[in-house]
């Protein structure tokens, strides 16, 4: 009888240990998935930023002849594009992206006052292409921020925080809009 009870206790202890280990393995794997989702979503943003980056010289070339008085706007866009090309970190790329978005808003607002430019087919196609890329970027940024938010909540929740500490996971930053981008575009003539 004592041997049978000992076997039952051993089986229960092994089962509890397996459940405990399985639970922590599940938490670990969830963190791996979330971390990879964040990397994937940033890579998707990067692809769109690269596409937009490649379209900017065409836009600048089509606008240059019309916007002789807005050289500073074109210079700002060129400077932001250069900053993006030289950016090494995610934060630097995000900052350059914010500068490009701000300059593009200004260019599109200023273009309203140039009827010949507004009627130029190349400009209209580029404006449409870049506007489409901007919309896709907004969607991808939203997905990125959702992935980061889910990761950060899980990282700070109990008992997941124990596994996160063991994995030495750090909090992730969300993609933020700069103060400058939150302002209305001012167009002066």
Description:
This protein has 189 residues and is an all-alpha fold. It has a single domain, classed as LemA-like domain (de novo design (two linked rop proteins), Up-down Bundle). Helix content is 81%, strand content 0%. It has 7 helices and no strands. Helix 1 packs antiparallel against helix 2, helix 1 packs antiparallel against helix 5 and helix 2 packs antiparallel against helix 3. The protein starts with a helix and ends in a 7-residue tail after the last helix.
Described by strand count, sense and barrel closure, the largest sheet is: none
Architecture per CATH nomenclature, i.e. the level-2 architecture:
Up-down Bundle
Under CATH at level 1, the class stands as Mainly Alpha
Strand content: under 5%
What is the number of beta strands? Answer: 0
Roughly how many Å is the radius of gyration? Answer: 26 Å
Kindly report the average pLDDT value.
81
Which range best describes the helical content: under 10%, 10-25%, 25-40%, 40-55%, 55-70% or over 70%?
Answer: over 70%
SSE string, helices as H and strands as E: HHHHHHH
Per the CATH scheme, the topology name is de novo design (two linked rop proteins)
């Amino acid at each position: 009888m004592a041997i049978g009870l000992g076997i039952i206790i051993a089986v229960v202890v092994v089962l509890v240990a397996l459940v405990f280990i399985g639970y922590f393995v599940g938490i670990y794997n969830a963190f791996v998935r979330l971390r990879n989702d964040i990397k994937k979503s940033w890579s998707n943003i990067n692809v769109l930023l690269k596409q937009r980056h490649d379209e900017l010289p065409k836009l600048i070339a089509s606008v240059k002849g019309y916007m002789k008085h807005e050289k500073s706007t074109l210079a700002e866009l060129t400077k932001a594009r250069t900053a993006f090309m030289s950016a090494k970190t995610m934060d630097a790329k995000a900052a350059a992206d914010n500068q490009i978005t701000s300059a593009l808003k200004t260019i599109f607002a200023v273009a309203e006052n140039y009827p010949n430019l507004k009627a130029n087919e190349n400009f209209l196609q580029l404006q449409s292409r870049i506007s489409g890329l901007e919309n896709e970027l907004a969607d991808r940024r939203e997905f990125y921020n959702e992935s980061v938010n889910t990761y950060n909540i899980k990282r700070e929740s109990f008992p997941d925080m124990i596994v996160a500490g063991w994995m030495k996971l750090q909090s992730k930053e969300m993609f933020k809009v700069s103060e400058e981008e939150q302002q209305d575009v001012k167009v002066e003539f």
